[in-house]
Specification:
The chain is mainly alpha-helical. The protein has 7 helices and no strands.
Length: about 200
């Protein structure tokens, strides 16, 4: 563990709580990338040692010295990956890490290929998040549409249940009350027989 990461994990709680969830997601995902790259380097060295041992019949692994700092991504690529990580919702952080580990275990990449796999996992997650947001949006629209149609259905059913409760005057109401119905207005002139 490097000194910087030791300080990061041993920061006072108030400093940790000042970070936003998005910053925490970016930091967590980038730490996972860094760890997977180191693991890939380690496995690559082990494969090389195994190959040498099989070829020569002697294990010289204890003689080989490896540089302290292995493969690292460029600053530009790091910024791009951090930007992609910032688009991952905190609830997806765990599933993204699990998917990334699954892909790394499946492909057993070399150190320089790990960031490419990480990028593909982030893109996959971003697409999934976008699809789910669109589905939620459609569901909200559908629910709003259904509420409107339900209110219309309720109105129609009320008028069917109580057809006599209305402001429209009918002849039968006038007969029941014993009053003369109002003269009806015809759209065509009345034809009367004249004698």
């Amino acid at each position: 563990m490097s000194l910087a990461s030791w300080f990061r994990w041993n920061e006072p709680p108030n400093r940790i709580s000042q970070r936003s969830p998005a910053e925490m997601v970016v930091e967590t995902l980038m730490m996972e990338l860094s760890w997977q790259m180191k693991q890939a380097e380690k496995q690559q060295r082990e494969r090389e040692n195994e190959y040498r041992r099989m070829k020569t019949g002697v294990d010289y692994g204890w003689l080989v010295s490896y540089p302290k700092h292995g493969y690292d991504i460029s600053p530009g690529e790091r910024l791009q990956l951090e930007d992609m990580c910032s688009k991952i919702h905190p609830s997806y952080c765990g599933p993204v890490i699990l998917r990334f580990r699954q892909v790394v275990a499946e492909y057993e990449p070399e150190a320089q290929e790990v960031s490419r796999l990480f990028r593909s996992v982030l893109q996959e997650a971003a697409e999934k998040i976008k699809e789910e947001e669109e589905a939620k949006k459609l569901a909200r629209q559908w629910n709003t549409k259904n509420r409107t149609s339900l209110s219309l259905t309720t109105f129609k059913s009320r008028s069917r249940i109580s057809p006599f409760i209305s402001d429209i005057k009918t002849i039968s109401e006038d007969v029941e009350r014993g009053t003369q119905p109002n003269r009806r207005v015809w759209s065509m002139p009345e034809f009367r027989n004249t004698k």
